[in-house]
Amino acid sequence: MAMRVNPFFHIPRLRPPRNHPLPILLLLALLPALPPVLPAAAACPPPLPESAYATRCTGGEVTLFERGAPVVYRDCAKGERHTRAMAKEIVALVEKLRCRFGERVVVTSGYRSWRHNLFSWAVLAAEKGSGNGVSRKSKHMEGKAVDFHVRGLSYLQHMELSGQLRRWAGLLERPLRGSRQAIWSRVYRPEEGRDPDNRHGFPYIHVELRR
Predict the structure, then answer these.
(1) Of 27, 64, 90, 101, which residue is the least packed, with the fewest Cβ within 10 Å?
(2) Structure pTM?
(3) How many angstroms separate the CA atoms of 7 and 151, rounded?
(4) Total domain count for the chain?
(5) Is residue 54 domain-resident?
């Protein structure tokens, strides 16, 4: 004889105890894989010379049409190196990174002469089809900005490293007037539009002093 099931019979929901690890384990399983822990600190190599932050002239040129007329922007001659003293905070940051990662820290852009910076602006403006959203001004011209990448680190690891910059060295953690930070950083993906100094195919970090 078949057993009849009462449709109004209530079956209680099974819930794990509050302290049961199952919900936490399920949550961890759904999280994306986190990047591996950053490499351990390395011995500090000798400080970089001032020439490591010099302008990297290309000798190139690019033409923009402004108000219907062609305007040619020329970079400084290839092989020229223009230098100026970099901000001590930028140098301290780079050297702290080098103490952690050694020679794997590659500085790709430090000081930029006004001609090289204007050429960099023109290159990006030509690729975008407009100069809108591309600034002619740059902290690089004041020696207050640096671009670098760390060989062997992924984009996510560069993001993690960028988040650590403000927690390193007390001189970089003090906020300035208002809500502005002493430093500002951004990580660029390999596929993003690049200025002529950073066409190397790796993610990189731009850091500048906000003062």
Answers:
(1) 27
(2) 0.74
(3) 65
(4) 1
(5) yes
The tokens describing 122, both together, are: 């023109």
Q: Is residue 185 part of a domain?
A: yes
Span 158-177, pLDDT tens digits: 999 988 886 664 444 444 44
Helix (H) or strand (E) holding 150: strand 145-150
How far from 18 is each of 14, 24, 29, 30, CA to CA, in Å? 12, 11, 19, 20
Separation in Å, CA 192 to CA 59, 89, 92, 179, 186: 23, 27, 28, 28, 12
CATH number of domain containing 174: 3.30.1380
Residue 2's Cβ-side half-sphere holds a number of Cα atoms within 13 Å equal to 3
For the chain, give the number of residues: 211
Question: Nearest-CA neighbor of 97 among 35, 48, 37, 156?
Answer: 48
In a domain, 23, yes or no: no
From the list 118, 8, 98, the residue with the least C-alpha distance to 48 is 98
Residues spanned by the domain of 177 = 50-209
pLDDT digits (tens, 9 = 90+) for 46-95: 999 999 999 999 999 999 988 889 999 999 998 888 999 999 989 989 99
Q: Is residue 150 a part of any domain in this protein?
A: yes
Q: Are 37 and 161 in contact (CB under 8 A)?
A: no
In the chain, alpha helices (H): 22-30, 88-101, 114-128, 155-164
Residue type for position 56: R
32 membership: H or E segment, kind and range: none
Task: Return the SS3 of 89.
Answer: helix
